[in-house]
Amino acid sequence: MRPNGHWNTRFYTRAFPYASETVALLGGNGNPGAATIGSRHIRFQHASYDHHVSLGYSPQFIAQTGVGRMVVEMRTTWLGQASAGMGIRSNSWLVHAQGKSFSTAHRLETLSGTPIALVELCLVAVDMQSRRATPVPDFLPAQARAGANTPENIAGSA
């Protein structure tokens, strides 16, 4: 939570998956991945945050412009299994950026490339003073149109 009392992107991308894992544990059925809950979700949260920074949405940009971002929807699609202790990686890309919103996708996969999950985030650009949606920064639509950060291009460069 930010010092001003508002939840931010980091909180949402960490809290909701963590909460779903906690609910699964409380159901009494056990969960073999429980020992790694914190590290798994913190790793994804960092991957999502790092991707947004790589697009140009850095803490410095936010401080200079006053334009932040907030998650309005997060969707996780299960695609396959990953056994305990298995290495995973995340490929992230900008799906669209238009008007006041943008979306990113993050494909989690094994080190051999087998898909595990797809996490999609829809975000809005926010004027941090007024706390109202504002047009996305110019660099986002330009990158979305260029299509340089798509799964195909990421896979081709690996």
TrEMBL record:
It comes from the Bacteria. The lineage of its organism: Bacteria, Pseudomonadati, Pseudomonadota, Betaproteobacteria, Burkholderiales. Pfam families: 4HBT_2. This is Uncharacterized protein. InterPro entries: HotDog_dom_sf.
